[in-house]
Every structure is written in structure tokens, then in C-alpha cells.
């Protein structure tokens, strides 16, 4: 018997073959949930735009399935896409009222590849305005389904919340500085930040090109692997992806092994990477208790744990790797490719009173900086040193991956002035910078909950192009623990299968 809540790609395809559900029925069921829980009920505000053509596309896919079988491995699967990614048939707002109704006239490579694999783009999801935080002038405030009074992680907030609340099967997020892994951890999900050259960014507004990447957010590790199969590979429209040639396996699902932890060596980073982490707080202790249990579970699965792993000068190297020198030129160059864009530059964006003040304040810090600044050289030297230090530590200890808490604190309560403040609107205690600055792959997997019922994510970081290894480790952990639980704020609707 088919159950919609928490349904995986395999569950859906099994039900389709048994004629228990169709793609059209899936669209109707997920849209019902969006209508019930997104702006009504708990008001999660995860969805920016529902695809008006979704039912027509679903019917076409159903007819194809009946006639000749599935189009591809994602046949008929409703997928959510972050509104930073262009879709020819839906507006792309970047979370900003400035771009409300903006049609770019093209699909991003990621969207083309999802559709080629048979996926149905059900909706565009809300995102922190211009890819930071969890609020924006296009939609307001996105909320955590495990406690709607708390933040959901950003900036792919809607993608995380939408998958957690079962508004779709899986989602695409974008990760410059943790924007896939943060919402995945905050919403008891699997989130993968791929190696930077693995997935094309064509058709996506950039933030920091040396860090930007698209990746999957899903409820299971296998669904994550299936989406990565569709996304990964060389795209001449994003030349950096040429570096992935020879590193993409026929399918990432080949790495999935229930005994994937056996014999693995994992190094534990206990030193907080974020400057706003406070080890003296109660919630820090609660998160560390979940981490310690998770390490025990990894060991019980056969992994050898090096705890703690010391990387000399780690926090200083991360701190010196910070800074935005690429953003203004990258965004201006991207906007120049769209003659119909309502604004043409970062400076025009900053002159608009519509942009939420917290985002405007952060973008203002980047204006006037370029890659010709002396600071950019120092930043890149620090990042080179950071990569070397991490790789040396992994080599010296024979490690397959590093492991740590995705965030050292639980989600904070959303401030009443979140749409008017100039303070940073972000997740506290995030250890996201390490993978972001190196451009290396990192995967977050559900590790359990603190006593208040808020999720904790466990993050695995690997060498370049070791997504298969991370998926293997995460799958072994997931199959042993099954920590993923849906949020109580979005239960099954009456009559829902």
C-alpha cells in the first residue's frame, strides 16, 4: 500500500508500476499539502511559485509511462528547485521583490538534466534574498517545520523545509557557504554539497564562483544519489566542470552499501569552526551529546574513529580564508546576460528600499572589492594552506572522511524584527566554512534530535570527487540508525494515502 508521507523515489516507482499512484495524482497530493501547510496552518513559507503546468507535464509523463515505460530514473518524480535557478516556465526571483515575475527565458543546466531524467519540476522554493539567510522581500520569512517559531537554515531554506514537510520528493539547493547543508541539518534531511567542478552552475545567479555549487536535498541517501546522477557531469556552458571528466561514475547508487561503515576511518573535528559558537551554552552541550551518540553509532557500524583529530591552526586558517572579493563582478556579469532584468548591477540592488535591510547591509560590505585586491591573494593563499593542512591530516591518519556536527547550536527563535533589522540573519554555530572555502564535497545526514525535538545534522567531508565515498558512509549510517522523522506540524491530510 502506497503512503505519500516520506515516500522515496523507489517507493513511488514501485507504486506507479502497481498502478497505485500516477504522476498526476502525486502533483495533486503535494499541491494539497502546500496549500494546507505553506501559507495556512503553520505558515512555513517554503514555496515561492507552484508550476502551473505541473498537471499537464504529469499527464504527459503518465502517458509515456503507459506507452513505453519510464523516461529515466526520476520519471514522474516531483522535485522542488531553489528560486536561484532559472526555469523557462516559472519566474526566478532570487528571493527578492525586485525580481517578482522575472522570466529569464531559459532553463538552467540542472533543470534540463532533471527533466531529461524524467523529473517534474513542481515548484520554485523560497530562498534567503540573493542567497543569504532565510528571509526575503519576495516572500517574508521561511519557518522551521519542527518549530515554526525557529529558523530553518538558509539560504536554501524553502528547499529544506519543502522536502522536510513533504511538499515534494526532493529538492535542489545551492551551497556557497553552507546553504545546502544548513537547511538539511535544520530539517532532518540529507544534503550534499558536491565538489565545485562536479555540477554545472549555468543558469544560476552566482554569489562567489570559486565556492558556488548546486546539489541535492532529500529525505534519504539513496534519493540523494539518484539526484546527483542526474546533475553531475561536464557542461561546456560552465567550463569549470571540465575538471570533473573522469571522476563521474556510471551511477552513484553503486556506492550504497548497508555495511558501508565497516573498515572506514573517520577523523572527528571537535574544534568549533564558527566564531559565533559558544561552548558554554546548554544547547551546545545538547548538540555535542547527539554528536557523541552518533560517533558511537558510527563505531558500532564498524568505523574506526580518530577522536579528536587535531589540525594545526585550523580555526585561524578558516578565518583567514574569509572575505568576498568575487561577488559584485560575478553578479553584475550574470545580470548582463539578461537584457530584461529589472536591475543591472549590485549597486542598483543596494539602492532599492525593497531589499530586506539585513541582506542589503551584507551586500554593501562586498561592494568595491575585486579579485585584484591584495586581500584576495592573501585569502587564496590561506585557502591553499587550509586544503594542504586538511589533506595532510587525512593522509597521516589514513582517513576516508572528516566528521563533525553540521551546526553546534540548535535553531534560534526568529526575531520579531527579522524583516527590518540590519543584523545578520543566519544560523548560529555553523561549521560550514571548512568545505566551502576548500571547494571539497561535504554531506549532512540526520543524526537525531535534542530534547526539544529539533534536528541535529552530522557532516562528513571528503577529498575532491569522493562523493561516492561520502554517500557510502552516510548510507551505512542511515541504514543502521534511521534518525529521520517527519515534523509534527505537517501531518498527513484527511484522505491522503
Kindly describe this structure.
With 497 residues, this protein is α/β, with parallel strands linked by helices. The protein is built from 15 helices and 13 strands. It has one domain (9-245, 254-481): Amidase signature (AS) domain (Amidase signature (AS) enzymes), CATH 3.90.1300.10. Helix content is 34%, strand content 12%. The strands form two sheets. The chain has an eleven-stranded mixed beta sheet, with helices on both faces. The chain has a two-stranded antiparallel sheet with strand order 4-5. Helix 9 (314-320) runs antiparallel to helix 13 (374-396). The protein is globular, with a radius of gyration of 21 Å.
Counted up, domains total 1
Tell me the fraction of residues in β-strands, as a range. Answer: 5-15%
Outline: globular
Approximate helicity band: 25-40%
Radius of gyration from the CA trace? 21 Å
Please report the distance between the alpha carbons of the first and last residues: 8 Å
Describe the biggest sheet?
Answer: 11 strands, mixed
**Strands ordered across the widest β-sheet:** 1-3-2-6-8-7-12-13-11-9-10
What is the CATH superfamily? Amidase signature (AS) domain
- Global mean pLDDT: 98
